[in-house]
Amino acid sequence: MTKRILTLALAVVMTAALLTGGGQSAFAAENDGSAEEITVGIASDLDSSLDPHVSSSLAGTREVLFNIYEGLLKPDTQGNLVPAVAESYSVNDTADEYTFTLREGVRFHDGSEVTVGDVVYSLSRAAGLETGEPLVATLAGVASVEAVDDSTVVVTLSASDAEFAAYMTAAIIPDGSDPADGIIGTGPFKYVSRSPQENVVIERFDDYWGEPARCAKVTFRIIEDGQAMVMSLHSGAIDLAAHLDASQAAELSELNVLEGSMNLVQALYLNNARPPFDDVRVRQALCYAIDKHMVIDLACDGHGTALGSSMYPAFGRFFDEDLTDCYEPDVEKAVELLTEAGYSAADPLRFTIAVVEAYTPHVNTAQAVVELLRQTGMVEAEILPMENATWYSEAYQGRDFDATITGMDASTLTASALLARFVSDNAKNFIGFDSADYDAAYAAAVSATDTDEQTEKFKECERILTENAANVYIQDLADFVVTQTDIEGYAFYPLYVMDMSTVCRVG
Length: 507
Hints:
The chain is α+β, with helices and mostly antiparallel strands. It folds into 2 domains: 4-9 and 47-186, Dipeptide-binding Protein, domain 1 (Alpha-Beta Complex); 264-479, Roll (Dipeptide-binding Protein, domain 3), CATH 3.10.105. 27% of the residues lie in helices and 24% in strands. It is built from 14 helices and 21 strands. Strand 7 and strand 8 (152-157) form a beta hairpin. Mean pLDDT is 91; it is low at 1-34.
Protein backbone atom coordinates (compact mmCIF):
# COMPACT_ATOMS: atom_id res chain seq x y z
CA MET A 1 0.00 0.00 0.00
CA THR A 2 1.49 3.30 -1.08
CA LYS A 3 2.23 5.66 1.75
CA ARG A 4 -0.32 8.44 1.84
CA ILE A 5 -1.11 11.44 3.92
CA LEU A 6 -4.76 11.27 4.78
CA THR A 7 -5.41 14.86 5.64
CA LEU A 8 -9.14 14.75 5.74
CA ALA A 9 -10.66 17.43 3.58
CA LEU A 10 -13.32 18.24 6.09
CA ALA A 11 -10.64 19.33 8.54
CA VAL A 12 -9.93 22.42 6.47
CA VAL A 13 -13.57 23.36 6.27
CA MET A 14 -14.21 22.68 9.93
CA THR A 15 -11.09 24.48 11.07
CA ALA A 16 -11.95 27.59 9.07
CA ALA A 17 -15.63 27.62 9.92
CA LEU A 18 -15.67 26.34 13.45
CA LEU A 19 -12.52 27.31 15.31
CA THR A 20 -13.52 30.93 15.52
CA GLY A 21 -13.94 31.17 19.24
CA GLY A 22 -16.30 28.31 20.15
CA GLY A 23 -19.30 30.61 20.26
CA GLN A 24 -22.70 29.93 18.82
CA SER A 25 -23.05 29.39 15.09
CA ALA A 26 -24.91 31.99 13.07
CA PHE A 27 -27.85 29.61 12.80
CA ALA A 28 -27.97 28.92 16.52
CA ALA A 29 -27.65 32.58 17.39
CA GLU A 30 -30.59 33.47 15.16
CA ASN A 31 -32.68 30.49 16.24
CA ASP A 32 -34.70 31.29 19.34
CA GLY A 33 -35.20 27.55 19.83
CA SER A 34 -31.48 26.98 20.39
CA ALA A 35 -31.84 27.41 24.15
CA GLU A 36 -34.71 24.97 24.43
CA GLU A 37 -34.62 21.62 26.14
CA ILE A 38 -35.42 18.41 24.30
CA THR A 39 -36.64 15.17 25.85
CA VAL A 40 -35.82 11.89 24.09
CA GLY A 41 -37.40 8.54 24.87
CA ILE A 42 -35.09 5.50 24.84
CA ALA A 43 -36.24 1.91 25.31
CA SER A 44 -33.74 0.70 27.88
CA ASP A 45 -31.42 1.92 30.58
CA LEU A 46 -27.71 2.46 30.04
CA ASP A 47 -24.85 0.30 31.27
CA SER A 48 -24.07 0.62 34.96
CA SER A 49 -20.70 2.00 33.88
CA LEU A 50 -20.48 4.97 31.54
CA ASP A 51 -16.78 4.37 30.97
CA PRO A 52 -16.49 4.70 27.18
CA HIS A 53 -13.68 2.16 27.08
CA VAL A 54 -15.62 -0.61 28.80
CA SER A 55 -19.33 -0.02 28.13
CA SER A 56 -20.57 -2.87 26.00
CA SER A 57 -24.33 -3.17 26.41
CA LEU A 58 -26.38 -3.46 23.25
CA ALA A 59 -28.84 -0.93 24.67
CA GLY A 60 -28.74 2.84 24.40
CA THR A 61 -25.35 3.43 26.01
CA ARG A 62 -23.48 4.25 22.82
CA GLU A 63 -26.33 6.45 21.61
CA VAL A 64 -25.93 8.70 24.64
CA LEU A 65 -22.13 8.56 24.94
CA PHE A 66 -21.74 9.51 21.26
CA ASN A 67 -22.75 13.02 22.29
CA ILE A 68 -20.28 13.24 25.18
CA TYR A 69 -17.09 11.54 24.05
CA GLU A 70 -15.02 11.75 20.87
CA GLY A 71 -11.99 9.97 19.50
CA LEU A 72 -9.22 11.18 17.26
CA LEU A 73 -11.69 10.53 14.43
CA LYS A 74 -15.46 10.20 14.31
CA PRO A 75 -18.04 8.93 11.79
CA ASP A 76 -20.33 11.15 9.77
CA THR A 77 -23.80 10.42 8.43
CA GLN A 78 -22.36 8.98 5.19
CA GLY A 79 -20.11 6.48 6.96
CA ASN A 80 -16.91 8.46 6.42
CA LEU A 81 -14.28 9.00 9.08
CA VAL A 82 -13.84 12.72 9.72
CA PRO A 83 -11.45 14.62 11.99
CA ALA A 84 -12.30 15.16 15.63
CA VAL A 85 -9.55 15.45 18.24
CA ALA A 86 -7.11 14.71 15.41
CA GLU A 87 -6.75 17.11 12.51
CA SER A 88 -5.15 14.59 10.14
CA TYR A 89 -3.36 11.25 10.04
CA SER A 90 -1.02 9.20 7.87
CA VAL A 91 -0.33 5.49 7.45
CA ASN A 92 2.94 3.75 6.53
CA ASP A 93 3.30 1.30 3.64
CA THR A 94 2.73 -1.80 5.75
CA ALA A 95 -0.31 -0.44 7.62
CA ASP A 96 1.25 -1.05 11.03
CA GLU A 97 2.09 2.53 11.97
CA TYR A 98 -0.46 5.34 12.18
CA THR A 99 0.61 8.93 12.84
CA PHE A 100 -1.95 11.45 14.12
CA THR A 101 -1.63 15.24 14.22
CA LEU A 102 -3.80 16.76 16.92
CA ARG A 103 -6.20 19.61 16.35
CA GLU A 104 -5.35 22.81 18.22
CA GLY A 105 -7.75 24.24 20.76
CA VAL A 106 -9.79 21.13 21.62
CA ARG A 107 -11.00 21.33 25.22
CA PHE A 108 -12.34 18.82 27.68
CA HIS A 109 -15.60 19.51 29.49
CA ASP A 110 -13.60 20.54 32.59
CA GLY A 111 -12.07 23.37 30.55
CA SER A 112 -8.57 21.91 30.16
CA GLU A 113 -7.02 21.72 26.70
CA VAL A 114 -6.36 18.31 25.14
CA THR A 115 -2.65 17.40 24.96
CA VAL A 116 -0.65 14.55 23.50
CA GLY A 117 -0.39 13.21 27.04
CA ASP A 118 -4.16 12.83 27.19
CA VAL A 119 -4.17 10.97 23.86
CA VAL A 120 -1.31 8.65 24.85
CA TYR A 121 -3.01 7.90 28.17
CA SER A 122 -6.44 7.29 26.60
CA LEU A 123 -5.25 4.96 23.84
CA SER A 124 -2.82 3.12 26.14
CA ARG A 125 -5.61 2.62 28.69
CA ALA A 126 -8.08 1.41 26.06
CA ALA A 127 -5.46 -0.94 24.56
CA GLY A 128 -4.41 -2.28 27.98
CA LEU A 129 -0.73 -1.58 27.38
CA GLU A 130 0.04 -1.48 31.10
CA THR A 131 -2.34 -4.19 32.30
CA GLY A 132 -2.10 -6.58 29.35
CA GLU A 133 -5.92 -6.63 29.20
CA PRO A 134 -7.42 -4.38 26.51
CA LEU A 135 -10.55 -2.52 27.56
CA VAL A 136 -11.44 -2.03 23.89
CA ALA A 137 -11.10 -5.35 22.09
CA THR A 138 -10.38 -3.77 18.71
CA LEU A 139 -7.23 -2.17 20.14
CA ALA A 140 -5.68 -5.47 21.21
CA GLY A 141 -3.20 -5.20 18.33
CA VAL A 142 -1.69 -1.93 19.55
CA ALA A 143 1.99 -2.42 20.44
CA SER A 144 2.80 1.13 21.51
CA VAL A 145 1.46 4.68 21.66
CA GLU A 146 4.08 7.44 21.68
CA ALA A 147 4.12 11.23 21.56
CA VAL A 148 6.62 12.46 18.96
CA ASP A 149 6.13 16.13 19.82
CA ASP A 150 3.48 18.42 21.32
CA SER A 151 1.01 17.76 18.51
CA THR A 152 1.90 14.32 17.09
CA VAL A 153 1.11 10.81 18.33
CA VAL A 154 2.30 7.58 16.69
CA VAL A 155 0.41 4.33 17.19
CA THR A 156 2.39 1.20 16.29
CA LEU A 157 0.62 -2.12 15.73
CA SER A 158 1.89 -5.64 16.27
CA ALA A 159 0.61 -6.59 12.79
CA SER A 160 -0.72 -4.87 9.68
CA ASP A 161 -4.30 -3.65 9.93
CA ALA A 162 -5.71 -1.58 7.08
CA GLU A 163 -8.94 -1.01 9.06
CA PHE A 164 -7.27 0.41 12.14
CA ALA A 165 -8.15 4.08 11.56
CA ALA A 166 -11.80 3.23 12.17
CA TYR A 167 -10.91 2.15 15.71
CA MET A 168 -9.64 5.63 16.47
CA THR A 169 -13.16 6.62 17.44
CA ALA A 170 -12.12 5.35 20.90
CA ALA A 171 -12.78 8.13 23.42
CA ILE A 172 -10.08 10.58 24.46
CA ILE A 173 -10.23 11.36 28.19
CA PRO A 174 -7.98 13.42 30.50
CA ASP A 175 -4.58 11.98 31.41
CA GLY A 176 -4.81 9.85 34.55
CA SER A 177 -8.58 10.16 34.85
CA ASP A 178 -11.09 7.43 35.65
CA PRO A 179 -14.61 7.87 34.21
CA ALA A 180 -15.96 6.33 37.41
CA ASP A 181 -14.87 9.53 39.15
CA GLY A 182 -16.16 11.93 36.53
CA ILE A 183 -17.49 11.74 32.97
CA ILE A 184 -15.32 14.14 30.97
CA GLY A 185 -15.14 14.12 27.20
CA THR A 186 -14.66 16.54 24.32
CA GLY A 187 -18.03 16.17 22.60
CA PRO A 188 -20.73 18.78 21.87
CA PHE A 189 -22.55 17.88 25.10
CA LYS A 190 -21.31 17.42 28.64
CA TYR A 191 -22.70 15.03 31.22
CA VAL A 192 -24.99 16.47 33.92
CA SER A 193 -26.71 13.66 35.80
CA ARG A 194 -28.18 10.20 35.76
CA SER A 195 -31.08 8.56 37.60
CA PRO A 196 -30.95 4.78 36.93
CA GLN A 197 -34.09 3.43 35.23
CA GLU A 198 -35.34 7.01 34.88
CA ASN A 199 -33.18 9.41 32.87
CA VAL A 200 -29.82 10.75 31.76
CA VAL A 201 -29.27 14.49 31.32
CA ILE A 202 -26.66 16.22 29.13
CA GLU A 203 -26.19 19.90 28.27
CA ARG A 204 -24.47 21.87 25.54
CA PHE A 205 -20.71 22.39 25.93
CA ASP A 206 -20.18 26.00 24.96
CA ASP A 207 -16.42 25.62 24.41
CA TYR A 208 -16.82 22.77 21.93
CA TRP A 209 -14.23 22.95 19.14
CA GLY A 210 -16.79 22.27 16.41
CA GLU A 211 -20.31 23.30 15.51
CA PRO A 212 -22.16 24.06 18.76
CA ALA A 213 -25.15 21.89 19.64
CA ARG A 214 -28.41 23.44 18.51
CA CYS A 215 -30.24 22.78 21.77
CA ALA A 216 -29.10 23.64 25.28
CA LYS A 217 -30.14 20.51 27.14
CA VAL A 218 -31.23 16.96 26.36
CA THR A 219 -32.93 14.58 28.76
CA PHE A 220 -33.01 10.91 27.78
CA ARG A 221 -36.01 9.30 29.50
CA ILE A 222 -36.07 5.53 30.00
CA ILE A 223 -39.39 4.15 28.71
CA GLU A 224 -39.22 0.37 28.38
CA ASP A 225 -42.84 -0.23 27.42
CA GLY A 226 -43.50 0.27 23.72
CA GLN A 227 -47.07 1.51 24.12
CA ALA A 228 -45.98 3.91 26.85
CA MET A 229 -43.46 5.33 24.38
CA VAL A 230 -46.22 5.92 21.85
CA MET A 231 -48.46 7.55 24.45
CA SER A 232 -45.59 9.78 25.61
CA LEU A 233 -45.21 11.05 22.05
CA HIS A 234 -48.97 11.55 21.73
CA SER A 235 -49.10 13.59 24.93
CA GLY A 236 -45.97 15.60 24.18
CA ALA A 237 -44.18 14.25 27.27
CA ILE A 238 -41.25 13.42 25.00
CA ASP A 239 -40.09 15.21 21.87
CA LEU A 240 -38.39 12.37 20.02
CA ALA A 241 -38.14 8.59 19.97
CA ALA A 242 -36.17 6.32 17.65
CA HIS A 243 -36.29 2.62 16.80
CA LEU A 244 -40.08 2.44 16.55
CA ASP A 245 -41.75 -0.08 14.29
CA ALA A 246 -44.11 0.57 11.39
CA SER A 247 -47.29 0.02 13.41
CA GLN A 248 -46.16 2.45 16.10
CA ALA A 249 -45.21 5.02 13.48
CA ALA A 250 -48.65 4.63 11.89
CA GLU A 251 -50.27 5.52 15.22
CA LEU A 252 -48.29 8.76 15.25
CA SER A 253 -48.92 9.99 11.72
CA GLU A 254 -49.90 13.46 12.96
CA LEU A 255 -46.29 13.97 14.09
CA ASN A 256 -43.04 14.00 12.08
CA VAL A 257 -42.28 10.43 10.99
CA LEU A 258 -38.82 9.74 9.56
CA GLU A 259 -37.80 6.41 8.04
CA GLY A 260 -34.23 5.16 7.82
CA SER A 261 -32.36 1.97 8.54
CA MET A 262 -31.31 0.62 11.92
CA ASN A 263 -28.06 -0.63 10.38
CA LEU A 264 -27.99 -3.94 12.16
CA VAL A 265 -28.30 -7.63 11.40
CA GLN A 266 -31.54 -8.96 12.82
CA ALA A 267 -31.59 -12.74 12.92
CA LEU A 268 -32.81 -15.76 14.79
CA TYR A 269 -29.44 -16.29 16.49
CA LEU A 270 -28.88 -19.97 17.27
CA ASN A 271 -26.77 -21.45 20.06
CA ASN A 272 -24.50 -23.59 17.89
CA ALA A 273 -22.72 -24.95 20.96
CA ARG A 274 -25.58 -27.04 22.33
CA PRO A 275 -28.40 -29.29 21.07
CA PRO A 276 -30.42 -29.04 18.96
CA PHE A 277 -28.46 -26.37 17.11
CA ASP A 278 -25.13 -28.17 17.19
CA ASP A 279 -26.62 -30.11 14.23
CA VAL A 280 -26.19 -28.19 10.96
CA ARG A 281 -29.21 -30.01 9.48
CA VAL A 282 -31.46 -28.48 12.14
CA ARG A 283 -30.05 -25.01 11.54
CA GLN A 284 -30.47 -25.34 7.78
CA ALA A 285 -34.00 -26.65 8.23
CA LEU A 286 -34.98 -23.46 10.05
CA CYS A 287 -33.43 -21.38 7.27
CA TYR A 288 -35.62 -23.15 4.72
CA ALA A 289 -38.72 -22.95 6.94
CA ILE A 290 -38.56 -19.20 7.57
CA ASP A 291 -39.46 -16.96 4.64
CA LYS A 292 -37.66 -13.73 5.62
CA HIS A 293 -39.66 -11.68 3.13
CA MET A 294 -42.89 -12.90 4.70
CA VAL A 295 -41.51 -12.09 8.16
CA ILE A 296 -40.83 -8.53 7.00
CA ASP A 297 -44.40 -8.29 5.67
CA LEU A 298 -46.01 -9.79 8.78
CA ALA A 299 -43.89 -8.14 11.45
CA CYS A 300 -42.88 -4.87 9.83
CA ASP A 301 -45.61 -4.06 7.31
CA GLY A 302 -43.12 -4.63 4.51
CA HIS A 303 -40.52 -2.17 5.82
CA GLY A 304 -37.00 -3.60 6.07
CA THR A 305 -34.17 -4.98 3.95
CA ALA A 306 -33.78 -8.76 3.71
CA LEU A 307 -30.34 -10.11 4.67
CA GLY A 308 -28.59 -13.40 4.10
CA SER A 309 -25.54 -13.11 6.35
CA SER A 310 -23.93 -10.96 9.03
CA MET A 311 -23.50 -7.81 6.97
CA TYR A 312 -25.86 -4.99 6.08
CA PRO A 313 -26.00 -2.71 2.98
CA ALA A 314 -24.46 0.39 4.58
CA PHE A 315 -21.10 -1.41 4.45
CA GLY A 316 -21.06 -1.08 0.66
CA ARG A 317 -18.32 -3.22 -0.87
CA PHE A 318 -18.47 -5.77 1.95
CA PHE A 319 -22.19 -6.48 1.53
CA ASP A 320 -22.88 -9.59 -0.58
CA GLU A 321 -26.42 -9.27 -1.91
CA ASP A 322 -26.18 -12.73 -3.55
CA LEU A 323 -26.47 -14.34 -0.10
CA THR A 324 -29.86 -12.77 0.60
CA ASP A 325 -31.91 -15.59 -0.89
CA CYS A 326 -29.45 -18.44 -0.45
CA TYR A 327 -32.19 -20.41 1.33
CA GLU A 328 -35.28 -20.12 -0.82
CA PRO A 329 -38.36 -20.87 1.32
CA ASP A 330 -38.96 -24.62 1.07
CA VAL A 331 -41.05 -26.27 3.78
CA GLU A 332 -40.61 -29.72 2.20
CA LYS A 333 -36.83 -29.35 2.36
CA ALA A 334 -37.11 -28.22 5.99
CA VAL A 335 -39.20 -31.28 6.85
CA GLU A 336 -36.73 -33.56 5.05
CA LEU A 337 -33.79 -32.18 7.05
CA LEU A 338 -35.67 -32.35 10.35
CA THR A 339 -36.63 -35.95 9.64
CA GLU A 340 -32.99 -36.81 8.96
CA ALA A 341 -32.12 -35.19 12.30
CA GLY A 342 -34.60 -37.44 14.10
CA TYR A 343 -37.67 -35.25 14.52
CA SER A 344 -41.26 -35.93 13.54
CA ALA A 345 -44.78 -34.59 13.99
CA ALA A 346 -45.14 -36.85 17.00
CA ASP A 347 -41.77 -35.84 18.41
CA PRO A 348 -41.23 -32.27 17.19
CA LEU A 349 -38.26 -29.97 17.60
CA ARG A 350 -38.91 -27.83 20.68
CA PHE A 351 -36.95 -24.75 21.75
CA THR A 352 -37.38 -21.28 23.21
CA ILE A 353 -36.70 -17.92 21.57
CA ALA A 354 -35.42 -15.32 24.04
CA VAL A 355 -36.38 -11.78 23.13
CA VAL A 356 -36.16 -8.43 24.93
CA GLU A 357 -39.77 -7.46 25.53
CA ALA A 358 -39.02 -3.72 25.34
CA TYR A 359 -37.92 -4.01 21.69
CA THR A 360 -41.22 -4.24 19.84
CA PRO A 361 -39.69 -4.94 16.39
CA HIS A 362 -37.90 -8.03 17.75
CA VAL A 363 -41.04 -9.21 19.57
CA ASN A 364 -43.11 -8.83 16.39
CA THR A 365 -40.47 -10.73 14.42
CA ALA A 366 -40.42 -13.52 17.00
CA GLN A 367 -44.19 -13.92 16.71
CA ALA A 368 -43.98 -14.18 12.92
CA VAL A 369 -41.11 -16.69 13.14
CA VAL A 370 -43.03 -18.91 15.57
CA GLU A 371 -46.02 -19.02 13.21
CA LEU A 372 -43.91 -19.88 10.16
CA LEU A 373 -42.09 -22.65 12.02
CA ARG A 374 -45.39 -24.11 13.21
CA GLN A 375 -46.43 -24.57 9.57
CA THR A 376 -43.79 -27.29 9.18
CA GLY A 377 -45.78 -29.47 11.58
CA MET A 378 -42.48 -30.47 13.18
CA VAL A 379 -41.35 -27.42 15.15
CA GLU A 380 -42.76 -25.95 18.34
CA ALA A 381 -40.99 -22.75 19.33
CA GLU A 382 -41.96 -20.70 22.36
CA ILE A 383 -41.21 -17.02 22.92
CA LEU A 384 -39.36 -16.28 26.15
CA PRO A 385 -39.74 -12.54 26.94
CA MET A 386 -36.96 -10.95 29.01
CA GLU A 387 -35.96 -7.59 30.41
CA ASN A 388 -32.95 -6.14 28.63
CA ALA A 389 -30.60 -6.51 31.60
CA THR A 390 -31.61 -10.14 32.08
CA TRP A 391 -31.19 -10.95 28.40
CA TYR A 392 -27.78 -9.32 28.35
CA SER A 393 -26.47 -11.12 31.44
CA GLU A 394 -28.05 -14.53 30.88
CA ALA A 395 -28.41 -15.00 27.13
CA TYR A 396 -25.66 -12.82 25.68
CA GLN A 397 -22.97 -12.98 28.35
CA GLY A 398 -23.96 -16.28 29.99
CA ARG A 399 -24.84 -17.98 26.67
CA ASP A 400 -27.77 -19.66 28.40
CA PHE A 401 -30.31 -19.73 25.58
CA ASP A 402 -31.58 -21.92 22.75
CA ALA A 403 -32.26 -19.16 20.24
CA THR A 404 -32.78 -15.43 20.41
CA ILE A 405 -34.03 -12.72 18.10
CA THR A 406 -32.00 -9.55 18.33
CA GLY A 407 -29.96 -7.23 16.16
CA MET A 408 -26.17 -7.12 15.98
CA ASP A 409 -24.73 -3.78 14.94
CA ALA A 410 -21.27 -2.37 14.30
CA SER A 411 -19.51 -0.15 16.81
CA THR A 412 -17.03 1.01 14.16
CA LEU A 413 -17.10 1.44 10.40
CA THR A 414 -15.29 -1.82 9.72
CA ALA A 415 -16.32 -5.24 8.46
CA SER A 416 -14.52 -6.66 11.49
CA ALA A 417 -17.02 -4.97 13.77
CA LEU A 418 -19.70 -7.33 12.45
CA LEU A 419 -17.64 -10.43 11.68
CA ALA A 420 -15.03 -10.68 14.45
CA ARG A 421 -17.56 -12.08 16.92
CA PHE A 422 -17.85 -15.35 14.97
CA VAL A 423 -14.17 -16.27 15.27
CA SER A 424 -14.16 -19.43 17.40
CA ASP A 425 -12.26 -17.99 20.38
CA ASN A 426 -13.73 -14.47 20.30
CA ALA A 427 -15.18 -13.45 23.66
CA LYS A 428 -18.27 -12.03 21.90
CA ASN A 429 -19.01 -15.28 20.02
CA PHE A 430 -22.20 -15.77 22.00
CA ILE A 431 -23.62 -18.31 19.53
CA GLY A 432 -20.61 -20.63 19.92
CA PHE A 433 -19.91 -20.82 16.18
CA ASP A 434 -16.76 -22.90 15.56
CA SER A 435 -15.26 -23.15 12.08
CA ALA A 436 -11.57 -23.49 11.20
CA ASP A 437 -12.36 -22.28 7.68
CA TYR A 438 -14.00 -19.17 9.07
CA ASP A 439 -11.11 -18.46 11.43
CA ALA A 440 -8.63 -18.74 8.55
CA ALA A 441 -10.66 -16.51 6.23
CA TYR A 442 -11.08 -13.89 8.92
CA ALA A 443 -7.36 -13.89 9.77
CA ALA A 444 -6.54 -13.42 6.08
CA ALA A 445 -9.02 -10.56 5.81
CA VAL A 446 -7.70 -8.52 8.73
CA SER A 447 -4.07 -8.93 7.66
CA ALA A 448 -4.69 -7.98 4.02
CA THR A 449 -3.45 -4.56 2.90
CA ASP A 450 -4.85 -4.89 -0.61
CA THR A 451 -8.43 -3.59 -0.71
CA ASP A 452 -9.77 -6.16 -3.19
CA GLU A 453 -8.19 -9.07 -1.34
CA GLN A 454 -9.57 -7.87 1.97
CA THR A 455 -13.06 -7.44 0.52
CA GLU A 456 -13.08 -10.96 -0.93
CA LYS A 457 -11.87 -12.55 2.31
CA PHE A 458 -14.54 -10.81 4.35
CA LYS A 459 -17.16 -11.96 1.85
CA GLU A 460 -15.79 -15.48 2.21
CA CYS A 461 -16.47 -15.17 5.93
CA GLU A 462 -20.05 -14.20 5.18
CA ARG A 463 -20.49 -17.15 2.81
CA ILE A 464 -19.22 -19.57 5.46
CA LEU A 465 -21.73 -18.23 7.99
CA THR A 466 -24.55 -18.60 5.48
CA GLU A 467 -23.62 -22.05 4.15
CA ASN A 468 -23.28 -23.37 7.69
CA ALA A 469 -26.56 -21.73 8.70
CA ALA A 470 -24.87 -20.22 11.74
CA ASN A 471 -28.07 -18.20 12.23
CA VAL A 472 -31.36 -17.63 10.45
CA TYR A 473 -30.74 -14.22 8.92
CA ILE A 474 -33.78 -12.00 8.50
CA GLN A 475 -33.34 -8.28 7.91
CA ASP A 476 -31.85 -4.88 8.50
CA LEU A 477 -34.81 -3.34 10.27
CA ALA A 478 -36.37 -0.12 9.13
CA ASP A 479 -35.84 2.56 11.75
CA PHE A 480 -38.76 4.86 12.37
CA VAL A 481 -37.98 8.05 14.25
CA VAL A 482 -40.93 10.14 15.40
CA THR A 483 -40.63 13.72 16.60
CA GLN A 484 -42.99 16.47 17.62
CA THR A 485 -43.81 18.81 14.74
CA ASP A 486 -41.61 21.59 16.13
CA ILE A 487 -38.47 19.41 16.22
CA GLU A 488 -36.03 19.29 13.30
CA GLY A 489 -32.49 18.25 12.43
CA TYR A 490 -32.43 14.52 13.25
CA ALA A 491 -29.93 12.65 11.06
CA PHE A 492 -29.50 8.91 10.49
CA TYR A 493 -26.05 7.35 10.82
CA PRO A 494 -24.76 4.00 9.47
CA LEU A 495 -23.96 3.10 13.08
CA TYR A 496 -26.17 2.66 16.14
CA VAL A 497 -25.74 6.19 17.47
CA MET A 498 -27.95 9.20 18.09
CA ASP A 499 -26.46 12.61 17.32
CA MET A 500 -28.41 15.20 19.29
CA SER A 501 -26.14 18.10 18.32
CA THR A 502 -28.09 18.75 15.11
CA VAL A 503 -31.54 18.55 16.69
CA CYS A 504 -33.45 21.63 17.81
CA ARG A 505 -36.87 23.06 18.45
CA VAL A 506 -38.13 25.56 15.88
CA GLY A 507 -40.99 27.99 15.59
